[in-house]
Amino acid sequence: MADEAILMWETELAIPINILDANAIPKGTALKLADGFVGAASTAADDTFGGITKIEKIALDGNVKVAAYFGGVFKMVVGAGGATKGFNAVFAGANTVEDLDTLDIEEGLVIGKFLETGTSGETVLVFVGKV
Fold first, then answer.
1. Cα gap 39→83, rounded to integer Å
2. β-pairing verdict for 123-128 and 72-78
3. pLDDT (tens place) for every residue of the chain, 131 residues total
């Protein structure tokens, strides 16, 4: 998988989130959240944050839950919108993050807070779960 989030410091334990058995999801995948506390791999800007997978989920393995972090410090890839130290982070696309804009606040899309500044394609530290 490209652009996986890498756990640097665990500040909270991972918790189980519902997942479809048919889905294959690599470790370090940023998830989007759907109704029913169901996670799936994030695919677009403005997805609702649903955690970051702690372990790999193999397709059709019979498991319908996967451990996901909703807090911690992760190294994540910056999307086209860039990252500014101290600003809140939102999804920029599949497994990438960027600075939030005013509409993101209204929609509850904040992932966490940038601990470093970066441009598109760079990796920066993100304190997931902190706003």
1. 25
2. antiparallel
3. 679 999 999 999 999 999 999 999 999 999 999 999 999 999 998 899 999 999 999 999 999 999 999 999 999 999 999 999 999 999 999 999 999 987 766 677 889 999 999 999 999 999 999 87
